[in-house]
Each structure stands twice: as C-alpha cells, then as structure tokens.
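Teaching assistant's notes for section 4

Start the section by putting this record on the projector. Ask students to predict, before seeing the second block, whether PTS system mannose-specific IIB component will look compact or extended. Collect guesses on the board.
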Amino acid sequence: MAVVLARIDNRLIHGQVLEAWVPHTRADCIVVANDRVAAEPLRRTMMAAAVPRNIQVIIGSVEELQEQFSNGRLLERRVLLLFETSDDALRAHQLGFPFDTLNLGNMHAGEGKLRYSCTIALDEQDIGNLDRLEKEEGVRIVSQCVPGDRARPWRKLIP
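Reveal the predicted structure now:
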C-alpha cells in the first residue's frame, strides 16, 4: 500500500484535489476518513459522484477505515488520504494509518481560530494535535495548497 498523500482539507473531495493532487500523485484511490461524513449518506454519495470512475472512493469513519488499512485491501492502491480535521489525522495515525507526512491544505476559520495563512486557521486544539503528530508520532507536517507551491514546515506559520 502506498499513501501517496495524506492531507487535512476541510472541503475533502473538491476540484483542487481532483484536478491538481490526483494527477500529481497519480492516486487511484481516494480515502476520506471522517466520522461525521461517514454518517451522512447524501454527502458521501455526492462526493463519490464527483470522482472519475477510474478512481476508487472509500468514505468511512476513522475506525472503519483503520480496518481497510490493516487488512491489506489497499495494498495495491495509490491512496490519497483526506481528513477534515486535525483530530481525525491524529486519531488515524494513532490507530495505525500508514502516513509519515501530512499536508495542511485548507483548515477554515472558525470560532476560536486564528488565521496563519490564506488557507490555514488553527485553534489551540489544532496546534496541540499537530504538535503531537510531529513530536510523538514522528509525522512531518507541511503546508502546501497545490503541488506547484513550495511545501513549508507548518511551524513556520506560527509566529
């Protein structure tokens, strides 16, 4: 199995992912790991319908997808792994999702969040989760909107 990209992107499957990241990584499988989306059949159907037929789409809760990764079903795929939040990414890595680099794409602003770039807004929970992923889990974390951008270490965003 090859996770060719693990990314936090609040929008999950959308045009930038399909038009930029899928061709760049040559992904043939998109995995969306988010408990809330997994419980919304209409949203799952709409996201899956947006993806070309030659790309497999798997949408599930973090715990459900842990089984997909551990039972070897994705061994032959080039997986683009999407998380909606830093909570999902941290929990997934702790459960054994196989990624060693995490891309911060879009993390929208919200109550209690501070904007650190045009697409990255973080609160204390996010910073704590990313810090744990980096220091305790050994994950390299970068900020990169599209493949043509330079990947920057996430800590350079924080003053």
